[in-house]
Structure prediction request, 314 residues.
Amino acid sequence: MTLALLFPGQGSQSVGMGAALADAFASARDVFAEVDEALGQKLSVLMREGPEDQLTLTENAQPALMAVSAAAARVLKVEFGVGVDRAAFVAGHSLGEYSALCAAGSISLADTARLLKLRGQAMQRAVPVGKGAMASLIGPKTDLALAEEAAKAGSEVGVCVVANDNNAGNIVISGEKAAVDRAIEKAKELGARAIPLNVSAPFHCPLMQPAADEMAAALASATIVAPVVPVVANVLARPESDPEVIRRLLVEQVTDRVRWRESMEWMAGEGGVTRFAEIGSGKVLTGMAKRIAPDAESLSLNTPEELEAFAKSL
Prediction:
């Protein structure tokens, strides 16, 4: 059995996330306390109690999702003796790439929390509210070719690109609102369903360049070391362990496409992965894994019971 650990991205947050881990394990409480201290805010209280509209803010959701993933990884190691080094690869969806790097020891927990807080703020600042938009193209006819044709139609009136290639039947476009609206029309003509996303900014598109510049400055001074296992990077859809390449890719990731389908296909194919375990809040990546790599086992790990059962299965 070859294992890959997956770390969720934005959209997987929910009020109460991480509470069961904190109630059950001191090691999880330590992680949440360290994140609170690094940020100078009671993020753990917001995660446990809400309100939801505050938790959903990008600058809070990003470090909060990382904190739950880090807590689950810490519990696996401390309570059940299962380190991240038991995996062949780690990978994370967008902000989840930071969670993966943190879990693999490449960036410290405190630095990861601070970088994600800044990343959320920078992405929010990059584009005025209402100027950008994102939409999910779904349905059996939705593939990358259809999404790119729709984005091309949108590009006639403004910036519009494929932002997240999640899996066949689920691809996200991003850009200026008028351009995304045009792309939605085109996607429907081509036989896809299109759902505008309730997001605060158009992520993973060229409009995020100001945020990429801010992250470049922050990452330039961050300590990044080689991860204990290779991280399959969003931008490359291939594993990477070189700290300086990782630093560059995290900057590119802000404006570039999340190549999730390709990343998963590479791990299930050339990478030889037969088991995917999603560590943290929600089950979004588990669902995608089942669609992209149906021959592999896919499971989510976010409760004490799930973590214990997983550890015993190894």
